[in-house]
Amino acid sequence: MPFAQLIIGPPGSGKSTYCNGMHQFMSAIGRKCSVVNLDPANDQTSYPCALDVRELVTLDEIMADEQLGPNGGVLYALEELEHNFDWLERGLKKLGGWTIRYEPRLVVLHLTDSYSLTLPSLYISTLLLSLRAMLQMDLPHLNVLTKIDKLSSYAPLAFNLDFYTEVQDLTYLLPKLATENSVLRHPKFEGLNRAIVELVEDFGLVGFETLAVEDKKSMMKLLQAIDRAGGYAFGAAEGANDTVWQVAMRERMTTMDIRDVQERWIDAKDEYDEKERTELEQMAIAAKDKAAADEEDDPDGEGEPNTQL
Predict the structure, then answer these.
(1) Three-state SS sequence of the chain
(2) How far is it, in rounded angstroms, from Cα 45 to Cα 236?
(3) What is the mean pLDDT of residues 201-229?
(4) Nearest CA to 31 among 248, 245, 252, 251?
(5) 90-126, pLDDT tens digit by residue?
């Protein structure tokens, strides 16, 4: 049975970067992975597309032919895809037994730039957008704060990272909203803001994972969450040929929690970066020394030691 991720999010949230990084990561750990591009405006991809909607329709063509703007062009393109749904279904079936007629193991990943945490108004907007997506899509859903490795270069957060990822008592944000913008100090806005945070808290659905796409541990932690949400973690989907990495992913052998993320990317980022840089340099030196030793043992490059008869 195929397992799939549906990647959504606003422009600039890191969707293309995520697809490229996850494709490389899953290939490295021995899991089959195909990327399907359903964004007609995504004219440049750094990853191989097994199926690309631009083969059916492109945004530039629509904007030129129909005299539409970018937003109208995207809506028109999606309608065109809906009218040619059989094209999508045929393409997906070729990827390994996928069939839309039966419910796939699909997990929605809603990506958001972690910069949204730096301003209370942006964070509340993110909460509303995430909640709306969860309610409308009615699928296993993970909200992901991307570019977490860049968070230390932004303005300092008002609270620890777990306040934002676990969506704790949002009433603590109300005074911060008032100081962010003088307009929001008006009583009518105060009542509206309170109603919004109470709405989010009443549903109790929204929470966030974090991601630094270039960090192996961060990718492992997120993929474990995806596997649990989609059911992959509860069975050996790849059969008896699972690699050590695949077993580790199912057995939850990574222990990073949000406090570790806070320490790694906010509180002690420079120290961790220096430690990783030193380790990489040591690995490079060790690899160079090993290559030199192998050259001495086999100067002719024939794979066997020289012998004298």
Answers:
(1) CCEEEEEECCCCCCHHHHHHHHHHHHHHCCCCCCEEECCCCCCCCCCCEEEEHHHCCCHHHHHHHHCCCHHHHHHHHHHHHHHCHHHHHHHHHCCCCCCCCCCCEEEEEEEEEHHHHHCHHHHHHHHHHHHHHHHHHCCCEEEEEECHHHHHHCCCCCCCHHHHHCCCCHHHHHHHHHHHCHHHHCHHHHHHHHHHHHHHHHHCCCCEEECCCCCHHHHHHHHHHHHHHHCHHHCCCCHHHCCHHHHHHHCCCCCCCHHHHHHHHHHCHHHHHHHHHHHHHHHHHHHHHHHHHHHHHCCCCCCCCCCCC
(2) 31
(3) 94
(4) 245
(5) 888 888 656 555 556 889 999 999 999 999 999 999 9
Question: What pLDDT shows up at residue 105?
Answer: 82
Q: Alpha-carbon dihedral of residues 276, 245, 209, 100, nearest 10 degrees? A: 140
In angstroms, the CA 113 to CA 81 distance is 28
On the question of pLDDT at 210 being above 90, the answer is yes
> Residue 7: pLDDT above 90?
yes
User: Could you give the CA distance from residue 156 to residue 117 in angstroms, rounded to a whole number?
Assistant: 9
Say whether pLDDT at 245 is over 60.
Answer: no
- What mean pLDDT do residues 280-308 have? 74
According to the model, what pLDDT value does residue 241 have? 47
Residue 237, token pair as written in the block: 């989907």
Could you give the CA distance from residue 177 to residue 189 in angstroms, rounded to a whole number?
10
Nearest of 95, 85, 210 to residue 160 by alpha carbon? 210
Higher-pLDDT residue of 284 and 147 is 147
Place of tokens 């406090």: 259
